[in-house]
Structure to design on (648 residues):
């Protein structure tokens, strides 16, 4: 059957199939990865009550609020709600959505480039590089970075709509461009540079900068006029983003880093991203900001490199316009996240390259094609046939080796995203002085009750940044949890000195000081052993191993008879197996040691109620109220049903 005019050739769809496969396979293992709740996945999905029930009227209204997580991206929130609606909290479904968007973005990029350049094979190579480059792992493998792949999806649709508009300009087609751009901004505001990107397309390959008048070509002012509404949308998005980040505290880092330091890091960042593009190793979820420690030679060298490349691209703009297009695409699209306005504590981030590297890939592929004799056709070659010859064979082999190598690196990098621990440990292995990752890894271990490992990483974090209240507080709390009270108190005290507005740390410090006071007159080592036994008993109890927990509580009492906490927990264990009288005795012993022990009073009230001693139970309820451990309303109603409150 003959191919109809305008119908894509079979080769076209074979390329699409190949790109889908290439975009899927290196990332396939994300489907077995979990969430990263201790680094954004928690606030975005896992612990976000606004997301966890899927689509509700209240949740949809919330999605359009400004400020949560320092962003305004309602479409991103709605996409997470859709995932919960379909997959609940199964991470495989959430990862599948990210991966599906990445595959779509790869195909749409190919459609777009082949449409505007008429160079099918070069467009395919650019899309293939986009599909497999390891710098894109962060955008795809991180559920919280849905905004990256989703906004790029709308970017690609916008670019395709713009290409269609330039073929036959009319208000209907231009309106579609505006709508898709607005949707992209509502997924991630990084797309604010899109009007400038469209001007680059007008320069090459659309050639719309000058009018078509052969007698006297002049600047086509219409290309600016048609984009004015888009510049307005970009400005509005910048304002909303600034407000959101200010409310979310994301701009706090900017107050501690001077503009000169930020500018130096930004200039260095441009060359650092290029280096990682060519040599994508030691990739991390967070690269610590160097602050004032960045070497001057590095900044100067980066500035010179950027200047030389820019000069070369501008000089060759008439004969090799694709070089200028690719380079300025890279410079412009990185501008919102390069660090002139510091957001967060990172110096750079792999996810920021998801869109900018398209420019570098275009520059490399079109420029490389010319250097091997135009093996894949000129920029305007409308033929989709790949020429034969030794150049083609050599180029094909080189491209194949590069793609396979990048795909293998991506496969390996994706494996580090298995869970919090594997990701954070890898990041610490490839970065230095990373106090954020040390603190996060400490928090992960603490949440798993592995306080020994938690203390190691939190101590490292405090050593790097002793001025941060949250790290001091977490370190002190971990020391307290394992019974190292004397070591915990100074850390907690210093944390509150740095930031007095920490209610939880205030409570932990008060409890630590109380235990210090109780420890007076008791053998220090014995007391530490008793606390360790008590904590171990709590862990066993949480695992349902009641008999072993009971043994640990009894051992804690034997080691430190003046320590009241294990009395109450042992009382609960005995009560659960029917020994209520013993439970009552133990609670009374705890209260004798510490009369203001509210939890002991509340527990005793329950045990007395079970024995039918309602007046005594009411007395203990009032004592529990006095010391801040009031029994719940259900118990009060049950007790009132047996005997009215004599205190009323």
């Amino acid at each position: 059957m003959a191919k109809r005019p305008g119908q894509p050739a079979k080769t076209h769809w074979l390329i699409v199939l190949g790109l889908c496969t290439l975009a899927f396979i290196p990332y396939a293992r994300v489907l077995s990865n979990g969430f990263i709740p201790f680094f954004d996945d928690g606030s975005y999905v896992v612990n976000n009550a606004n997301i966890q029930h899927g689509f509700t009227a209240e949740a949809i209204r919330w999605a359009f609020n400004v400020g949560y997580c320092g962003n305004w991206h309602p479409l991103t929130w709605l996409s997470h709600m859709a995932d919960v609606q379909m997959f609940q909290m199964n991470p495989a479904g959430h990862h599948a959505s990210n991966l599906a968007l990445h595959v779509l973005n790869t195909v749409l990029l190919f459609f777009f480039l082949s449409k505007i350049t008429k160079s099918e094979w070069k467009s395919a190579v650019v899309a293939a590089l986009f599909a497999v480059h390891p710098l894109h792992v962060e955008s795809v493998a991180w559920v919280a970075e849905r905004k990256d792949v989703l906004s790029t999806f709308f970017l690609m649709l916008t670019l395709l709509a713009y290409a269609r508009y330039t073929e036959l300009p009319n208000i209907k087609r231009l309106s579609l461009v505006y709508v898709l751009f607005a949707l992209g901004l509502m997924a991630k505001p990084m797309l604010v540079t899109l009007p400038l990107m469209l001007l680059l397309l007008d320069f090459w390959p659309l050639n719309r900068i000058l009018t078509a008048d052969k007698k006297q070509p002049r600047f086509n002012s219409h290309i600016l006029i048609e984009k004015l509404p888009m510049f307005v949308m970009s400005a509005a998005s910048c304002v909303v983003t600034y407000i959101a980040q200010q409310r979310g505290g994301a701009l706090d880092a900017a107050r501690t880093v001077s503009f000169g330091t930020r500018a130096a890091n930004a200039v260095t960042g441009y060359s650092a991203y290029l280096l990682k593009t060519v040599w994508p190793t030691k990739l991390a979820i967070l690269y610590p900001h160097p602050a004032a420690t960045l070497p001057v030679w590095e900044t100067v060298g980066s500035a010179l490199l950027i200047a030389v490349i820019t000069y070369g691209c501008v000089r060759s703009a008439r004969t090799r316009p694709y070089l200028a297009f690719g380079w300025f695409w890279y410079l412009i699209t990185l501008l919102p996240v390069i660090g002139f306005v510091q957001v967060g504590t990172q110096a750079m981030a792999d996810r920021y390259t998801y869109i900018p590297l398209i420019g570098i890939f275009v520059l490399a592929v079109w420029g490389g094609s010319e250097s091997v004799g135009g093996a894949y056709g000129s920029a305007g070659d409308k033929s989709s046939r790949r020429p034969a010859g030794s150049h083609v064979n050599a180029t094909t082999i080189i491209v194949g080796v590069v793609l396979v190598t990048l795909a293998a690196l991506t496969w390996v990098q994706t494996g580090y995203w298995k869970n919090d621990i594997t990701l954070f440990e890898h990041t610490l292995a490839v970065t230095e002085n990373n106090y954020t990752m040390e603190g996060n890894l400490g928090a992960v271990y603490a949440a798993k009750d592995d306080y020994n490992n938690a203390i190691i990483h939190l101590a490292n974090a405090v050593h790097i940044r002793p001025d941060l209240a949250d790290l001091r507080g977490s370190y002190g709390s971990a020391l307290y949890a394992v019974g190292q009270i004397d070591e915990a108190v100074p850390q907690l005290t210093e944390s509150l000195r740095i930031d007095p507005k920490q209610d939880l740390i205030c409570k932990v410090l008060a409890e630590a000081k109380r235990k210090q006071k109780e420890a007076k007159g008791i053998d220090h080592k014995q007391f530490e052993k008793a606390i360790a036994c008590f904590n171990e008993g709590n862990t066993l109890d949480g695992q349902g191993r009641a008999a072993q927990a009971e043994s640990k509580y009894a051992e804690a009492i034997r080691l430190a008879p003046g320590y009241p906490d294990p009395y109450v927990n042992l009382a609960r264990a005995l009560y659960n197996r029917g020994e209520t009288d013993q439970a009552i005795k133990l609670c009374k012993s705890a209260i004798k040691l510490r009369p203001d022990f509210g939890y002991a009073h509340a527990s005793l009230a329950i045990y007395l109620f079970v024995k039918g001693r309602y007046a005594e139970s009411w007395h203990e309820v009032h004592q529990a109220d006095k010391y801040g451990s009031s029994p719940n309303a259900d118990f009060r109603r049950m007790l009132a049903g047996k005997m009215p409150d004599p205190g009323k």
DSSP finds 31 helices and two strands in the chain. The domain at 524-642 is CATH 1.25.40.10 (Serine Threonine Protein Phosphatase 5, Tetratricopeptide repeat). Residues 496 and 502 are 7 Å apart (CA to CA).
